[in-house]
Amino acid sequence: MRDPVTGFEYPDEWVAACRSPVLLPQVRRGLAVLTASGTVLRRGFTTGTTAAAACKAAILSLVEDEEVTGVGITLPCGIAVRIPVDAYRGTASCWKDAGDYPSDVTAGLEFVATAAPSISGTVQFVPGEGIGSFARDTPRHRQGTPAISAPALDCIRRSIAEGMEEAGLPGVTVILTVPRGAEVAQKTLNPKVGVHGGISVLGTTGLVEPWDDHLVEGVLDRIAQAPNGVVLTTGRLGLRYSRLLFPEREVVLVGSHLSEALQMAGGDAVICGLPGLILKFMNPDVLEGTGCATVEELSMTPQWEEVARREIAAFQERYPRVRVVIVNRDGKVIGGSP
Predict the structure, then answer these.
(1) What is the pTM for the complete model shown?
(2) pLDDT tens digit string along 71-118?
(3) What 3-state DSSP class applies to 328?
(4) Residue 146 DSSP label
(5) Domain at 163, CATH number
(6) CA distance 205 to 50
(7) Same domain for 169 and 217
């Protein structure tokens, strides 16, 4: 059985040990993960997915006589899902479902979309109250730009287009708000990375991973049993590029749990991925004195080569058998150990 989100082939013994066989169809669809112990953990939906559902529901409710209670969304990873909503006469609410991820501070957060037909036939999407924006210019974002990632924005726009087609509308204006967004954002990393006024709308796959439990029960076993050595990576793009760079090795997505993963690997591994979590893992104070708000921002400045070389050298003194490969979002190697 294969996980359609990560491509991981579940071992037959994991499937045989499943404590809830009735939930295996959810695992096959990618909406849940199976752990080595046989526990099934449900994936949640990202802020981007929640926003897309609210926007589509608001449009559909313009032409429905009764309340709209659910909408179909195609996630950035390609999986089609149905999301519960509450929509009537152009206004829709959707509440973020975090699945079995225990530390999601945005769990249960309400997203509200309002839609109105456009007489001119144009399509407008307006991020409103509770959605954060960048406080200053960075190499990838301009000051005042809404903090909505490219995959999330694509999902929102695609869902708006689908809603217009299903409703038979030539144009529409959709305003998206998150009533408690500014409050909840204070519990996230947004204030530290230069996003103010609300939450970020994110989602590379459209799904939230149940990281904490899955790492303990399933991923650590894969690390320990990797036959040709293991590559540890921190996110979806890192996973993709690690598989291209190291096709002969087992690549394991561990998120922020690099310390536990390295311990399980016995200190003999490759760490490969985007610079953020890797450099922060090596040195939590790496940004001190750089004038940069994020490691990604640092990686686009002239300081990068010197800082990366220094931090990787210091890290290798502690972990001499661990190779480090740092890539950017385009897959180019921008740093690494000799």
Answers:
(1) 0.78
(2) 999 999 999 999 999 999 999 999 999 998 877 899 999 999 999 999
(3) coil
(4) B
(5) 3.30.2110.10
(6) 13
(7) no
